[in-house]
Structure formats: structure tokens, C-alpha cells
Amino acid sequence: MSRRLESSIKKQLYRILYWQLIILMGLALLILILQGIHKGWSTLLGGSSYFIPTSLFMLRLTRYAGARASIRFVMAFFSGEVLKLGLCGILFVGAVRYASINEVYGMIGLIGAIVAFWIGSIISLSQQEAK
After folding, report:
1. Is 100 helix (H, G, I), strand (E, B) or coil?
2. Whole-number pLDDT of residue 67
3. Which residue among 83, 90, 108, 115 sits deepest, i.e. has the most Cβ atoms within 10 Å of its Cβ?
4. What pLDDT, in 10s, does the model give residues 59-98?
5. Alpha-carbon span 116 to 122, nearest angstrom
6. The pLDDT of residue 6
């Protein structure tokens, strides 16, 4: 794969993370305004428990964007997905247990971050196709 194509893939992954973060922050801000600081903070921490592992997963994938690394890419993808989900669970349980977040709003943040990932992917891909 050419350097230009590798750069394009990395740009797409970073754009997805950007949109996921913007949507998550917007959701947390909306909850903060409507429901107060504790529930807004809970939403942000719940969403962060998915955003942080997803960011690490995406950054790891960018190392294997070349065609010669296709087998390593697939292995990194599957092992990274398992690690991402495990880390997400650990971070969410840690937030509930040690940060005393509101579980319902933490779950709203977690689900919001998952949905934001897909929305960010759609936005990023539609912007790429428009070029």
C-alpha cells in the first residue's frame, strides 16, 4: 500500500475518533445542563470508558495499515477488539465503584459513545466520498 493510502487510512481513523469525542462531549454537556453536574460527569465517565479503549485500539491499528502487514493487521484487529472490550468493562466498573457515578447516566454515556463511534464513522466516510 502506498504511503498516500496509508496516510488516508490514518486520517479516516483519526476523523472517526474526533467525531466520537465531539458527540460524547456534546451528550455530556447536554446532560450537565439538563440534569446537573453529577449526572453530566457520570455520562462523561461512562462514555470515556468506551472512548479511551477505542482510541488505543485505533492507534494500534494504524501501525498495520500497509499491505505487507495484512496478516498482522487482522491479528491486531481481533486481539485489539478483545482488549478494547475488556478494558472498557474494567474502566466502567472502576468508574462506578471508585468515582461514584450514577449508573444509569454512566450507561447512557457508554451507549452514547458506542453510537457516537458509528455516527462518526458514517460522517467520516460520507465526507471522504464527497471529495
Report:
1. coil
2. 54
3. 108
4. 887 776 665 566 777 777 788 889 999 999 999 999 999 9
5. 10
6. 67
Q: Provide the grid cell at 4.
A: 498516500
Angle at 123 between CA 122 and CA 124, to 5 degrees: 90
- Candidates 113, 110, 111; CA nearest to 94 is 110
Any residues with CB less than 8 A from the CB of 55 and at least 6 apart, and which? 17
Residue 131's pLDDT band (cuts 50, 70, 90): low
For 3-28, how does the pLDDT look when each residue is reduced to its tens digit (9 = 90+)? 665 677 788 888 999 999 999 999 99
C-alpha–C-alpha distance, residues 56 and 52, integer Å: 6
Cβ atoms of 42 and 106 closer than 8 Å: yes
44 close to 28: Cβ distance less than 8 angstroms? yes
**13 closest CA partner among 42, 54, 53:** 54
CA angle, 126 as apex, 121 and 131 as ends, to 5°? 130
CB 87 within 8 A of CB 95: no
